[in-house]
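User: Run a structure prediction on this.
Assistant: Running it now.
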Amino acid sequence: MYDAVLLMEWAEFAVRWLHVITAIAWIGSSFYFIALDLGLHRDRNLESGADGEEWQVHGGGFYHIQKYLVAPANMPDGLVWFKWESYSTWLSGFALLFLVYYLGGELFLIDPEVLDIPVWQGAAISVASLAFGWIVYNQLCKTFVNANQTVLMVALFVVLVGMALFYTNVFSGRAALLHLGAFTATIMSANVFFIIMPNQRVVVADLQAGRKPDPKYGKIAKQRSTHNNYLTLPVIFLMLSNHYPLAFATEWNWLIASLVFLMGVTIRHYFNTMHARAGNPHWTWGATVILFIVIAWLSSQPAYHYEEEAAMTRAGERYAAAEGFEEVTGIVMGRCSMCHAAEPVFGTLMWPPKGVMLETEVQIAEQAREIYLQSGVTHAMPPANLSYMEPAERAAIVAWFKAAES
């Protein structure tokens, strides 16, 4: 049975690697085309009838790029579509969500002190919320289609703040911020699947039929692509947040997540303005720094809020009842609890690394899988073996975990 744990760990690693690879491809192409569109020279009378052009040099070669406001006169051969980067990123992300937060719901998704519900209900809420996000966002776009786009972005920001509050009152802090990122990423990928690609197919079909394409389809697709451009950086922050308790394990995690979206706007506004050669908005640097300082301050108000210890789960009870638990408890308390405590006594630590506490039997039993992986199978913990965990102690951890799993 313990081999299944290792297999699951490697499956998570493989899917996470795939997710990062596809995300790099999607974000890279998205940022490139937004920068290209903003930087096109549109003051030139091009014989091809294109709206603008750009000369670029990269990798030892020169590239001459032209953009048509609606479409060229005839359907070009070998047309390249950019869609699988988006689809693969979302699919791999959802697979990772399933592996880590649905299958590992007792550890990562549900926090009984926030809302004591079964894991399956949490997973159902998770899936429903992702669909809800697209429906609300798409309706906002249709409602404000002719309004100032700033109004639409403000409306979307209000929705995101509301979802941040919702998630932090349903899931664990770690899962809440991750889900807000997944909520936003679902909107972005759905933009590609339901709006951008279908609109481009309409234009292609018109060209193939010899009709003049309607420019509204390109305009709508560009609007959604621009939204994706401004939402990308907050999504990256929220996906990384699960590694940093200062972001997710605080009283104000919902507000931290909300302010991150504003930082995404200020950062992208700077680069988009520069790409468009419309000036140098230095104020965005100051605004971003101020927002980050506020986020850092919020993370310490307080950094952690500990209630009475929660009751042991069924999984925890199994590990606590396994042969060798008493010995392992002594090992962990002697080698690990100086750092993994509500008030660490090692070095300059002010909080337990990754929010993991190992001071009581309940906490140790609940963290059995991570103790086994981090200190039994591998030597990741203690870091650099600073507390001198002996090989025999690591073997005892492995034997205890195997006994519980058998």
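The chain has 15 helices and two strands.
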